[in-house]
User: Which sequence fits this backbone?
């Protein structure tokens, strides 16, 4: 089997030497990101005083680094490809954070709709947008005080010329399956997207013009959802994913894409790109062995062994007493063989593959062009 590094080198070679790659020029001074655990670089653990335990972060950071992953997320690979530093979380005040090249407002567990009382994260999309508003006000105040803060904060024109990235909505859908029928969930999608539209309109009113919007992945292929909702084989598709969850994700994505087109039509001075993450991830799971993986659905870090190695009572890296027995959710011997890291999130190896596909531009609507300068050759 070909190694993933070799396969990704080939993908990079194809991208670098394609006509598309040479038409792209990069000029974004900063990135402002909004989302959930798919792009959270430490916001939730800082915001609620939580802690991630090893083996989270083991591959790249060599320690837990605020990410629900064994290493880097898609946002990390994209920032690296743009020759920008990894984004610091808005909520992380410890250390010496710099926000000169942008800020990350994403927090794991976040939803588009306002958070419920028992939500994992109180930092819903509306709260993240409000945090951005405060961030911008404080930046402009500090810039007025002279040069001493300039190396830590964005320049004023970064707010208009910067890139605004979004990856949120997964938790609105996935969480709803615990209390609602599929029909009820499908009917709720317009309400979710109305809230999302309100948020991006507020950002536009604040000067945002470059919008980069990821759709949601195949929720039914996440180990957690298969373990909970896939016990009846008739509920699974040909890949072993939960059909209802993926149906909801696809409808959400269709309506999200329509919203992106509508928003673009209403704001001709903006650039709105919709990225089809669902297709990239589903293709990875369907053809996992082609890309050097061995386990498309089983979690690397978990408890219970095959076929899923997932127990909702014991998160990755934690030890719990279950029915009088102490059990620990441990990492596997080689996470690069796994698409799924902990039952809910993708492994670094999978995130690297997804990033390589995003960078081809062919999963974007509209595709990359000179009118939407973006990412340059892969560096991984």
Assistant:
């Amino acid at each position: 089997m070909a190694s993933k590094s070799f396969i990704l080198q080939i993908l990079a070679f194809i991208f670098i030497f394609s006509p598309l790659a040479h038409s792209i020029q990069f000029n974004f001074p900063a990135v402002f990101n909004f989302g959930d655990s798919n792009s959270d670089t430490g916001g939730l653990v800082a915001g609620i005083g939580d802690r991630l335990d090893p083996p989270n972060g083991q591959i790249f950071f060599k320690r837990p680094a605020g990410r629900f992953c064994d290493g880097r997320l898609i946002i990390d690979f994209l920032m690296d490809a743009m020759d920008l530093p990894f984004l610091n979380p808005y909520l992380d005040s410890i250390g010496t954070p710099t926000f000169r090249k942008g800020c990350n407002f994403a927090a794991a567990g976040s939803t588009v709709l306002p958070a419920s009382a028992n939500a994992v994260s109180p930092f819903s999309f509306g709260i993240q947008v409000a945090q951005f508003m405060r961030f911008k006000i404080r930046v402009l105040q500090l810039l007025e005080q002279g040069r001493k803060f300039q190396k830590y904060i964005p320049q004023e024109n970064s707010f208009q010329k910067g890139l605004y990235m979004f990856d949120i909505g997964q938790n609105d859908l996935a969480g709803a399956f615990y209390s609602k029928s599929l029909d009820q969930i499908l009917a709720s999608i317009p309400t979710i997207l109305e809230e999302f539209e309100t948020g991006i309109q507020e950002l536009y009113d604040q000067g945002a013009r470059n919008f980069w919007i990821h759709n949601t992945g195949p929720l039914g292929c996440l180990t957690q959802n298969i373990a909970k909702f896939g016990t009846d084989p008739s509920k699974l598709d040909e890949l072993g994913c939960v059909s209802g969850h993926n149906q909801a994700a696809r409808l959400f994505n269709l309506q999200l894409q329509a919203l992106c087109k509508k928003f673009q039509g209403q704001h001709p001075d903006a650039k709105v790109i919709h990225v089809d993450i669902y297709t990239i991830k589903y293709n990875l799971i369907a053809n996992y062995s082609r890309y050097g993986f061995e386990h498309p659905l089983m979690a690397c870090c978990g408890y219970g062994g095959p076929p899923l190695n997932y127990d909702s009572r014991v998160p990755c890296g934690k030890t719990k007493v279950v029915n009088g027995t102490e059990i620990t959710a441990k990492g596997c011997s080689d996470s690069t063989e796994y698409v799924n890291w902990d039952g809910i999130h993708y492994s670094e190896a999978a995130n690297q593959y997804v990033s390589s596909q995003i960078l081809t531009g062919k999963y974007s609507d509209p595709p990359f062009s000179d009118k939407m300068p973006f990412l340059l050759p892969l560096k991984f």
